[in-house]
Amino acid sequence: MYEDQVESPEEELKRADHLVYVSLKYTRTCDVIKNAIKRMIAAYELAFDEYLTVKKNREELPASTKEKATLVKALLGNPARKYLALYNHLKKIDKADYDAFDEFRKGVTLKTRTPIPIEVKMPDLYAYLEITKQFVAYLRQVLK
Asked: Which of 34, 72, 92, 115 has the highest CB neighbour number within 10 Å of its CB?
């Protein structure tokens, strides 16, 4: 997660939203894309923590985020599959080495150096952000 202490997934999403819709619009660099992806991952992880804190005892919580994601998947079942698939996809993009194409231009693209390359363009980033927002809203609804 990031060095500053963010209390809720909504706060992390505000920062990701600003990166995607404001910073990326003016800078058009892959560093901004990477930072937005990191913020989305952090929002997922904060949402996992909040959900599991309500559903489980503090002593029963797993230490690693991978175990937390697995536990959330088991508790939520089938409706959470697409959200957790995006979380895993974002983690894969974040861990991979990448090349930057068309930086400082309208079609800025981050392309991973993986066996099956993943290209992230601005419309993809918009979609990732919207699905992440839907996931946080879904967890809030489930917790009511």
From this structure: 72
Considering the entire predicted model, what is its pTM?
Answer: 0.92
Residues composing the chain: 144
Domain spans of the chain, in order of start = 9-143
Give the span between the Cα atoms of 28 and 135, in whole angstroms: 27
- Distance between CA atoms of residues 5 and 125, nearest Å: 24
- DSSP class of residue 107 equals T
Low-confidence ranges of the chain (pLDDT < 50): 1-2
The tokens describing 121, both together, are 């363009």
Q: Which amino acid is at 125?
A: L
Q: Give the pLDDT score at 1.
A: 45
